[in-house]
Amino acid sequence: MKKLVFIFSLIFPAVLSGQQRPFSEWDATAFCSYTSYHPFNYIRADNNWEIIEALAVPRTRAELDSLGITNSTSQLMLLHIEGLVERDDAGRWYSLMPVMDSVQTARAREFSLSLAGKIYPHIAGECRNIVENLRERGQYDNAFAVIFSYVLDGRIWDSFNSFEDLRSSATWEGECWALYNPRDLACGTNSYNGLSVCWTEEEPEFVWDELDPDSFIIPFLEDYEEHDIITDPEIVSKAMAMGLAGGDGSLLIPVIDADDMECAIKLLSVSTVRVRSIGSGKRSEFPTAKTNWPVRCFTTRLCGI
């Protein structure tokens, strides 16, 4: 995480060229935890994104007005409280969210690819071992989720630093940034009380309706924790539809037990994490991400990692 933030610090803030783009056209990412509102809720509200994008260059409110960008005291106050903008001693506002144009994004991705090429030979064997372990367990289709969400988005992020080391605001803590152009395949991880979902932007909206914490995830996990299978008929039916469980209630997704020090996937991921990063241009060597049902998930029992 520190390397990532450092990279951004080298190239931000920079003068953005060309016309402003809607937030939906950017490749926006957030690594965060939040209470009431996700940081993107604040960014999308009113014309807040227009303000943040313009403040990639420090500007006064009068300068925003001269650009035709409406702004109010309450808007800037909210964005300030939520850690998205700051004001310097000269009275100029500037964005705390890295916003990288196409040239900056291309340079960052070239650097990332170069770094991945150096790291890949050191971790390829361990990644293949994880994939093979899942194949032996009949869970080969979950290999991408485990490699991406458990190892990369979980163990490796945690090895850089914890949430306590990240920026903290009123209702969320973490980091968020925006790149242009968007990636061809954007993935992410959402975790709820131990159930982790590896998603892509192509997931249909009803996926998130079905994975509601109160009506499905919490009773799903509580039922499994008590019985080692899912016993509630309604939850079993939903879990079957999503490919998470069989008709007998047994889980079809990997279970990584936080308290089991001999867990194969945990052991295999340890040396991978020591390398501190993961990446490869040879994506064909691993199962590709699925963008339809069944959902690619795994569960870390007892909220374990």
Mind sketching the topology for me?
Blueprint: H1 2-11, E1 27-34, H2 39-44, H3 48-54, H4 61-66, H5 73-81, E2 85-87, E3 93-95, E4 99-100, H6 102-136, H7 143-160, E5 172-179, E6 187-192, E7 195-200, H8 206-210, H9 213-227, H10 233-241, E8 255-257, H11 264-274, E9 297-301
Parallel strand pairs: 4-5, 8-9
Antiparallel strand pairs: 1-5, 2-3, 6-7, 7-9
Helix pairs in contact: 6-7, 6-11, 7-11
Tell me about this structure:
The chain is an alpha/beta fold. 43% of the residues lie in helices and 14% in strands. The chain contains 11 helices and 9 strands. The strands form 3 sheets. A 4-stranded mixed sheet has the order 6-7-9-8, with helices on both faces. Strand 2 and strand 3 form a beta hairpin. Helix 6 runs antiparallel to helix 11 (264-274) and helix 7 crosses helix 11. The model is unreliable at 1-18, 270-295 and 301-305 (pLDDT under 50).
Question: What's this entry about, in short?
Answer:
With 305 residues, this protein is an alpha/beta fold.
Assess the beta-strand content as a share of residues: 5-15%
Q: Please tally the helical runs, counting DSSP H or I stretches of 4 or more residues.
A: 11
Distance between the termini: 17 Å
Average pLDDT value?
Answer: 79
The assembly state of the depicted protein chains is single chain
